[in-house]
Structures are given as structure tokens and as C-alpha cells.
Write a structure and sequence with these properties.
heterodimer; A: 120 residues; Immunoglobulin-like; 11 strands; B: 109 residues; four-stranded antiparallel beta sheet
Amino acid sequence: EVQLVQSGAEVKKPGESLTISCKGSGYTFVNYWITWVRQMPGKGLEWVGRIDPRDSFSKSDPSFQGRVTISLDKSTSTVFLQWDSLKTSDTAIYYCARSFCSGGKCSDYWGQGTLVSVSS
Amino acid sequence: QTVVTQEPSLTVSPGGTVTLTCASSTETVTSAHYPSWFQQLPGQAPRPLIYSSNTKNSWTPARFSGSLLGGKAALTLSGVQPEDEATYYCLLHFIGDPVFGGGTKVTVL
């Protein structure tokens, strides 16, 4: 059974660092991109970025570039989303999704979401 | 950045048919944009329904169908069920980066 299991909810203060994770199982990890999507409270979906597990090439939306880092650990089939210095505006649910088609343009399985709360 | 526009809300009667659309502010939507559609029920993670314009994910009920219509991507729900009440998002891939639409809240009434 294909599963993407994300790490648990986080409560942080502005300026703190954070890494959340997404662990894939039930499929060949390197054959599928992983995409990250943000959903701020009461708002719609926003594409954050994606990573190719074959070569660790990652691409982020310009609005997230410099704010987040997408990385992975092939040995544990886990993808990470990392912040060096959180802002209150990073408060949101972050979803990971398994992606395929050319350059990961299609998706099927999604994680359950990780709630990140940033407040002083 | 390109804006992707969806109807903010639509209402449909049980058993009825409704079509949601997804438009780009800068260009005609084609298969090259790999249009995808997602359903999000309250408090749940989004669930993919359609990718590459009209290909259903394995769990997508037959009453959902995707197409290209008049320069836009479209999602048609036929024989609507009460459990279809949800917010639906489209996603388009541009040369730069993918962009989600703002979502359409479908009410079954």
C-alpha cells in the first residue's frame, strides 16, 4: 500500500528553525517526485516546490525561494521541508504529494498534512 | 505571475450536473498545462481526482470527468451526490511554475 506519512504538528516561535518530513512507503521511492503544498488558515492551496529523488534536484516557487529548503534522504525514503528562520506568516498546513508525469506534473497519493504554527 | 481563476462558488441539486472551470490570465489552457483537479472536504487533505486534463486517478468515481472547454480546463460532476459537497481546486503547470486556482466551493442543495 502506497503511503506518505508526514511528521507531527509543530509549534514554534518566530526566528526558530524547523524541519518537517514526509516518509514514503509501498513504492519505489526514486521513481516519483515529491511535491510540497501549503495551505494557510482558511485559504486555498499554494505550490511550494518539488524534488526529484533520482538526483535530489529541487525547484521552488519564487515566492518560497530563499525561505525554504527541500531535501531528501534516500536511505529512509524521506523528503524534508526546512526553514532556517520562521515567520508568523509560515503558519499553515503543509502537504506532501507523490508526483509523476513529465517533471512531476501529476499527483496521486498525498500525506495527511503537517500543521505548523508560528507565534510569539 | 499568472493568475488561475475558478468560480468562487456553485450550487447544484442532488442528481444534477455542474461544470467547474479553470482559466489562465495569460494564455489559453491546453493539455500542455497538465490540468489537475483536487477535491478537499472540510478538515481533510486534498484528494486528487483528475490529472493530464482528463485522466482519472484510480479512486475517482465515474461521475467526475475532466476536459478542455473553450480555452479553459473543466471538471464536470454528473449525477451529483451529497458527499460531493466540497471545495475543488485546479492546478495548471506553466513554463515557470505551477499555479493553483483559488478553489470552487460546491454546495449540494
